[in-house]
Queue: 2 jobs
Job 1
Amino acid sequence: MPAEHAHSHHNHHEQHFQSTETVRDVVIGMSDGLTVPFALAAGLSGAVNSTHLVVLAGLAEIAAGSIAMGLGGYLAAQGDAEHYASERLREEREVVERVRDEEEEIYEIFDAYGVDRDAATPVLEALKRNPPAWVDFMMRFELGLEEPQRGRAAKSASTIAVSYIVGGMIPLLPYMLMASGLDALKVSVVITLLALVVFGGVKGRLTGTGGLRSSLQTVSIGGIAAAAAFGLARLLSAS
Amino acid sequence: MPAEHAHSHHNHHEQHFQSTETVRDVVIGMSDGLTVPFALAAGLSGAVNSTHLVVLAGLAEIAAGSIAMGLGGYLAAQGDAEHYASERLREEREVVERVRDEEEEIYEIFDAYGVDRDAATPVLEALKRNPPAWVDFMMRFELGLEEPQRGRAAKSASTIAVSYIVGGMIPLLPYMLMASGLDALKVSVVITLLALVVFGGVKGRLTGTGGLRSSLQTVSIGGIAAAAAFGLARLLSAS
C-alpha cells in the first residue's frame, strides 16, 4: 500500500527533522545566551565599580533576551505552520478547480530537470488518480514546503528561552558570588570562554561543521562581542 | 532547450528567494534590536537613577547583540552553503558510482506519492540521460536542499547587525537626550511601542500574517520583555 509506505516514510523523516530542529533551537538560544549577557557584564564591569549593578543589568538582559527570543521563535514557528496550512488549502482547491493549470505546473517542474512531457505524463496520471498525494507532491516539489509538526511553536519557544537562560547564567555567576568586580570579570571570562569551547565543539559535531573549527568560531564571536562591549563602555565612561 | 529554461526558472526563483531572505534577516535583527535594548533600558531605569548608566548599558548591549547576532547569522549561512556543497559533491559521486542505489531512491521518492515504478521509469530514464539535472533533482527532491546564493553569509550578517543597531537606537535616544530618567523612560516606552507597531505592521504585510495581528504580536513581545526586565530589576534593586 503506497499510502501506508508514505506514512511510515513521513514519520521517519519527521523524527529526523524534529531532533534537528531541537538542536537548532538550543543553538539559537545558547549561542546568544552565552554571548550577549557575557559581553554586557564584561563591558559594564569595565565602566562601573559595583558588581551588584553588573548582576542587575545581566539578569535584566537575560529576562528580556529569553522572552524576546523565545516569543520570537514561537511566532516564527506559528507563522510557518499557518503558511503551510493556507498553502495546502489553496493547493487542495486548485487540484479540483484548476486541473489544467496544475497539470501544467507538474510539466514545468519536470521540464526544469530536462524531463519532457511524454516522460512526465505517467507520473501525472498516477498523481491524478490520488488527489491527496497530488497535493502532497505539489506542497513539497512545487512550493518546497515541509509539513511542520504539531506543537512545534510552544516547544521551540521554551527550548530557545531555557537555552538562553542557561547560557546567560554562566557568565553572571562569578559576579553574583565574588566581591571584587575585577576578580569576577576574570573568572567570568575564563568560564564563559570554556563554556563557548564546549558548546562550539558539541554544536560542530551535531551540525557537521567539525568540533575544533566550530569551537574556534563560537569563542571568537563571544570574544569579539565582549571586547567591543568592554571597549565601548570604557570609552563612554571615560568621557 | 530545457537547460536554458531551467536556468531562467532558477534565476527567477532565486530572486524571489533573495528578497524573502533579506526580509527575514531584517526581521531577525530588528525584532530583537527593538525589544532587548528597550527592555534592558526600561528595566535599569527602574533600578538606577543615572540615565548615563542606562545609556552605557544600552549601547554595550547593542554592540554585543549586533555582533553576536550578525556573526551568528554569518556562520549559519556559511554552514548552509558548506552543507549544500558537500551534499552536492556526494550526489555527483553517487549518480556515477552507485547508479543502482540512486535509481532505487528515485523510485522511493515517487512511491511515497503513490506513483508506481512503471510510471516513474520514463522520468528516471530522462534524468539518467542528463546527469547534472539528475543531481539537481536529487538535491531538491531527495534532500530538500536549495542552492544558497553566493555572498549570502556576508550579506546576511550585515543586514542582521545593521537592523539590530537601528532598532536598538530608537529606545535609547530619549535617555541620551533627556536629563530626567523618568521622563526618558516614558518617552522611550511611547516611541518604542510605536516603532514596534509600525515594524509589526510592515512585517505582517510582507510575511502574510496580516498587519494588525502582527503589530499586536510585536508590541506584546516588547511589552512583556520590558515589563519582565523592569520588574526583575526593581525587585533586585530593592533587596
Job 2
Amino acid sequence: MIKLPLALLATVLAAPLLAQPAAPPPPPVVVAPWIHALRDDALANDRHAWDITEGLTTEVGPRMAGTAAEARARAWSVAKLKAMGFSNVRVETFDMPVWVRGPESAEVLAPFPQRLVVAALGNSASTGPAGVSGEVAAFDSVDALRAAPDAAVRGKIVFIDHRMTPTQDGSGYGQFGAPRRAGPTLASQKGAIAIVVRSIGTDHHRNPHTGVMSFADGAKPIPAGALTIPDAEQLVRILKRGKPVTIRLRLESTTMASAQSGNVIAEVPGRDPRLAPVLVAGHLDSWDQGTGAIDDASGVAIAAAAAKRIMDAGRPLRTIRIVWFGAEEVGLLGGLDYLARHGKEPHHAAAESDFGADRIWKVESKLGEARRDEARLIGAALAPLGIVTGSFDEADGSDIGPLLASGVPGVGLGQDGTRYFDLHHTPDDTLDKVDPVQLRQNVAAWTAMLAVTTGPIEPNARPRR
Amino acid sequence: MIKLPLALLATVLAAPLLAQPAAPPPPPVVVAPWIHALRDDALANDRHAWDITEGLTTEVGPRMAGTAAEARARAWSVAKLKAMGFSNVRVETFDMPVWVRGPESAEVLAPFPQRLVVAALGNSASTGPAGVSGEVAAFDSVDALRAAPDAAVRGKIVFIDHRMTPTQDGSGYGQFGAPRRAGPTLASQKGAIAIVVRSIGTDHHRNPHTGVMSFADGAKPIPAGALTIPDAEQLVRILKRGKPVTIRLRLESTTMASAQSGNVIAEVPGRDPRLAPVLVAGHLDSWDQGTGAIDDASGVAIAAAAAKRIMDAGRPLRTIRIVWFGAEEVGLLGGLDYLARHGKEPHHAAAESDFGADRIWKVESKLGEARRDEARLIGAALAPLGIVTGSFDEADGSDIGPLLASGVPGVGLGQDGTRYFDLHHTPDDTLDKVDPVQLRQNVAAWTAMLAVTTGPIEPNARPRR
C-alpha cells in the first residue's frame, strides 16, 4: 500500500471531478549537466574527505578545545589545506578558559557494592581525589527534580533518568538533553552535593556521553557526571529494591583561566571578488574521550572535500570560504569569534556539516523569497542522491548558528542521525564508525550544493594562488 | 534455488534409477505429549531464568573469582536456590591464587601523542604506577612473532594484531585467541618488556576484552594487555606512517597467594536414588569489567530454571544436580575441584550453559552408541524450537570439560554465538544484552533435554526436601 498524506490524497482524488483551472505549474528546474557530472564524480571517486578524516583522527587524535592537542590540530590543518592547494590559509586565534578531565570513577557503596562507569560533564566541579559520597535522590526527569522539595535533595547526589530514542533528524537532543544542560544548576540550587545523569544517548554500551554544561543563575558548581546507559539502568534496578542507595563519585578535573584556540580558514577565490563568499564549515575541536571522527573530523572533511572538487573543476564565480572552527564543543566559541570579526561582511550563504557522516537525507535552506529558484535548484541537484527537499525557511548549524541568527542566508544538509547519538561525545567516536560510501554521498551533495551557490565554474581558468 | 549437499543430491538422483533395496528406516522417535507441554510452557512463560540473571547481576554485579564479590555471589546463590525449593543446597569450597586488576592506562608517546584504551589480561605482571615505555614491535599473528629474531623484539613492547570474525558456533575463539594465550609467553621469551594484543573480539567499541593467560615454560611474567579493537586499528594506522612508534603502558595489579572460591550445588532428588544423576551447570564467577550477564549469569540461570520447571512438574526418575561453578574464568578451577571430589561417581549426563543467552541453534551429544535412541529423542524434543540435531559423538563445556574428558556422557546445547564475542570479557557484558525471548527459548530447550534424560516425571508425588 502506498500512503499519501491526506491533503495530497484529497487533491489527487478531487482534481478530475472538480476540473478547476490548474494553478500554473512552477517553472521547471533544470540542473545543468556539468553539475550532475561533478556530483556523480564525487559520489564515485572522492578520496579527499576520507583522507582528511583518517589523517586528522590518526595523526592528531582527540583535540579538546584550548589544549595542546587542538593546537596540533590547527598546525596539521594549515599544512593539509595548503597541500590541497587552497588559498589564503590562515588561523584566527582567540583566548578561552579550559576545563580538563582528570581521573574519574564511581561506585555503589550500598546496598550492592559495585563499580559504575562515569564521565564528568564539561565544567563539572572537581571532587578532588577523595571523591564525594552520598545517598542517591533519583528523578525520572528534570521537571520531577524541579518539582521536588529542597529537603528531598539537600546533601544528596541527584540522579536524573530519561529515555532518549533515536530519530532521523536528531530532534530528540533538545528535549532529552535537558538533564545534562539544566540538571546541574537545578541540583546545585536545591543543595545537592553532586549530580549524575543518564548519558544523553541512544546506545547500550559502557561508554559515557560527556558534553558541556554550565552553572547558571549564580548556582555554585558541583561535581556533575554522566553514567553510561547500562550503568544508569543498573542504578534504576538497584533503586527499585527500595533500600537507600549510596554512591561514591570521584570526578577530578582542572581548569586553566586562559588558553588559546582558533579558527582555521582557507579559500577558493572566486572570479568576481566583489561578490559575497559562500561559507562552508565544520569544527576542528573534539571531545577528549574519542578521536572525534564523526564529531567533527568528517564534517570539516566533507566541507573541504567539496570545495576542493569545485576548485579542481575550475574557477567558481563566488569565493568559497572554508572555516574549521575551534572550540565548538565548549560553547561555540569559534563561531562567536567569527561573528565578531566577520559578522558585518556579506555572505552569500553559510552551511555547516556537524552531524556525523551518515547519508544526507534532507536539504533545507533559508535563502530568502527572492532566491527561491536557487533553493529549488539545490533541491533538484541533490534529488538524484535520494535527498528530500524540505523547508525553504529553515537552516541551522552549530558554529554558524550565531551567523544565521544575524541574518546570513543558510543551507542545511541534514545527515541521517539514527545512530548519531549512539556515538556522540563518547569514547566510541572513532574512525571505524565512518562509512566511506556514505561519506562520499555527503561530499557529492555538498559539491552539488556548492556548484549551485557559487555560480558557474570557468573550466579553463586556474585557481588563483 | 534450493541447494542440496552434493552427496545428498547424488542419492536423490540415483535412487530411482538403481532401485536398490532401501535401508530399513530408523525406528520412529516419538516425543511424549507431556514433554512438548513442558517445553512450550517454558518457552511462553519462564520467569525463573530472568529472575536469576537480573538478580545476580544487579544485587552482586561483577564477581571475580576468589574475591569478596564472588563470596557474596555464593551467599546470594545459596539463598536463591533454597528459596526456589531445591534440596541439598551446599557450597564446596577450595583455595586458589587471585590476581586483581588495578589502575591501567596506555598512550602513544610518539609520533602522534594520544591515549589508547587498554585492559590488563589476567595474570599480567604489574607495571607499577610508573608504567613502562618502549618502542612497538608489531606482528600480524603469533606465528609472525614466533618467526621473528629475538633482536627485533628485545627491549620492545610487542603488539599482535589479528582479525577475528564472528561465527555462529564460536569456533573462531580457538584460532584467534592465540595472541592472548600464547603471545605473552613468546614475547617474554624473546625479551620483550611488555605485550599488547588486539582484543580477542568481534565488536568495534572502546571496550577491551580481557581474559586469562599464563606464562608457560618458565617465561618471566611481563605486563600484558588487550587494546580495544578501535585502538588496535588506530595503532595499525599510526604504525603504517612508517615512523618508530613508542607507547607507555600502565597496568597495575596485585596478587593474593591464596583466597577462597567454591562451587554452589543444589539438587532435585530423583525417585530412584540409586540411579546416576544428570548434572546441569554454569559458572558463577565473572570477569571484573562487566556484570557477567552473558558470561555466565544467564548460564547458571538457564540450567537452574530448567531444573526448577522439572521439579515443579513432579518427581523425575533421576536426580538433577545443579552446579554453579566458581573460578571458571581463571582456569576452570571449580570444574577441576568437582572432578577431584566427584569424578569417580557415575553421572548419567552432564551439560553446561556457558555461551551467552542467544537462541540455541544446535544440539549435540555424546551418550554412547547404546543410548542413541535417547540422543535422537533429545533432538526430536528440541526440533520444534528450530534446533538442529548435530553430532552424536560430540559434547563440550568449560567447567565440565575435565569431567567429559574422563568419560562422563555429555549433551551440548549450542547457543548462537554470532554476537557473543562482541561482548565476551568486556565492560559491555551487562544485563541489557540478554534478550528475554531468546533466554526463554534456552530454558525451553534445557527443560525438554532434562525431561528426556532424567526419565519420566511422576506428577503426583512431591519433591523430597
